[in-house]
């Protein structure tokens, strides 16, 4: 599926913002290495095991909450769009602030998602708060 990256319509032409193009491309590399095995190539997840990343409130909603999922992992057994997922997500806190910012920017702008970028400084702030 073609990658849609953040940008603006100018005279009916989509002009991606160059920062976000680079972030999305770098983030896709991180996704393939660290997320794809569970959440799958199309972000569709695996039924009853790993949830999809398509337009969920975790992906599109509060950025700090999404950053925290990556840093701390996720084993809350919450229902995601009416389904339960029995696998646990391990913490991926060995990733750098930039890698996390990029992969979240990517996930928020592929799989039919469209949302603002995540910046390394935002990841840094959440990491610092969790360390307190
Ligand atoms: C080992 C498998 C695994 C890996 C690797 C993994 N996840 Fe997850 N992820 C899960 C599972 C399982 C859940 C749900 C856990 C639960 O319901 O308790 C989850 C939950 C989530 C959620 C919140 C629920 C949703 O679907 O919106 C997001 C967002 C997410 N993962 C993104 C990522 C990203 C981005 C990466 C890579 C940086 C990643 N995950 C790597 C298994 C994984």
TrEMBL record:
Alphabetized Pfam families for the sequence: Cytochrom_C
Top-level taxon of origin: Bacteria
Q: Does the keyword Heme apply?
A: yes
Q: Name one GO molecular function term.
A: electron transfer activity
InterPro entries under this entry?
A: Cyt_c-like_dom (IPR009056), Cyt_c-like_dom_sf (IPR036909), Cytochrome_c-type_DH (IPR051459)
Tell me which positions the record assigns to the signal sequence: none
The entry's keywords: Heme, Iron, Metal-binding
The residues covered by the Cytochrome c domain are 22-111
The record, for PANTHER family, names: BLL4482 PROTEIN (PTHR35008:SF4), BLL4482 PROTEIN-RELATED (PTHR35008)
Q: What is this protein called?
A: Cytochrome c
Species name for this entry? Arachidicoccus ginsenosidivorans
